[in-house]
Amino acid sequence: MTATTTTPLPAGAPVSKNAESALPTHAKVPSRIDGPRPTTGVPFGRLVHVELRKMLDTRAGRWLLIGIGAIIAIALTIMFFNRGGQHAFGEYLQATTMPMALILPVVGILAVTSEWSQRTGLVTFGLEPRRMRIAWAKLLSALVVGVCAFALSLVLAALAHQAAITFRGIDGDWSTEALVLLGAGGYVLLGIAQGVGFGMLFKNTPAAVVVFFVLPTAWSILSSMVSWLGDAATWLDMNQTMQPLFSGSLTGEQWAHLGTSVAVWVVAPLAVGIWRLTRAEVK
What we know:
The protein is mostly helical and 283 residues long. It has one domain. The protein is built from 12 helices and no strands. Helix 2 crosses helix 6, helix 4 (89-117) packs antiparallel against helix 6 and helix 8 crosses helix 9 (227-236). The longest helix has 38 residues, at 131-168. The protein is globular. The model has no long low-confidence stretch (mean pLDDT 82).
């Protein structure tokens, strides 16, 4: 067996034509590629479209949506046969929005953490190095999914209520306060935005999912057991601060409570998460 050693040339040393032809092929610099050069970056609309594909056109996202649909179907079926189907439209709406508000944030988490767990970050940030645009595209696409999900929940609730009126002979009750609709929509949108924030904050799917579900629950439990935490919960527990929305009335102080809790649980994770996303090392 023989071994061949190559002595590197010093930097700036001239290379003869014979020596240049003896260099390996991979050491030669490729010629300039012909054709027009791009003059603008990736359109923001295309970034949003790609992020929507990441959220919905994956096996995990698809099965999560199937799971949400199955839970909603079971809940509406139970309500249709329970008490003769005598439920108001607002109750059917609650049955359709609750599963979405609880599970859709996981779709937002996966849309962010997949860049690191599936190692797609090199492609994503290589094609669009301006990470701030990627962060906003992820958030906007998540909110678009939330808006579409809430619109679908309204349609399903209306269909279920009308079916109960037609086939079960109940008295229709379509009266729903505007604040109740605002609360239901806000519950879905804030939840998915919070999921995106936790995904950016942790960049790890198991950690983000566990903290997203465990931390608010633990906070609610502790606030019910410790008196001074109970006082703070009126400002920081979103489960409490959003309840007046569903009752259809909200005072100025309650709006302040809601704004404070949203700032802590939604705005702060998003702000810190975007800051981390723009500075994280992609491997």
